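FW: tagging you since you asked about this chain on Friday. Here's the raw sequence from the shared folder, copied in full. Didn't touch anything.
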Amino acid sequence: MAGKRFVYFAIAGLIIIISGIAAISFVRSRTSKFPSPNDEKFIAAYIDLALTKEMVGHYPDSLTAAFDRIYRENGVDSTWIREYVKDLSKAGEKNKIIWGIIVEKLDSLKSNPAPDTIYNY
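HL: got it, structure written out here
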């Protein structure tokens, strides 16, 4: 009889512990912002830089001026971009997600260009 009682308490304890872990995980997932403001800043800047390089890459002077404008508009500079990429490369799953977002967005923009882009022939 005492053995059964112990088993029931052990099972109840495990259920409580698992429920607590699940609740903590749920709360943490809801409170951590992804993508973060820095992630969004990087994504926007990188997409702008990639599209600009593709559009005016043959004209280095124009490219430098365009990149300076993009950095200014996104509140970043080339050092910030390099450091972000370095940190992102160590981020495992986040790295895959961020680059996936960028590739998806670039593909979407290239297949459905805005009326005033170079892709609208």
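FW: The chain has a mean pLDDT of 82.
HL: agreed, and The chain has two domains: 1-32, 35-121.
FW: great, closing this out.
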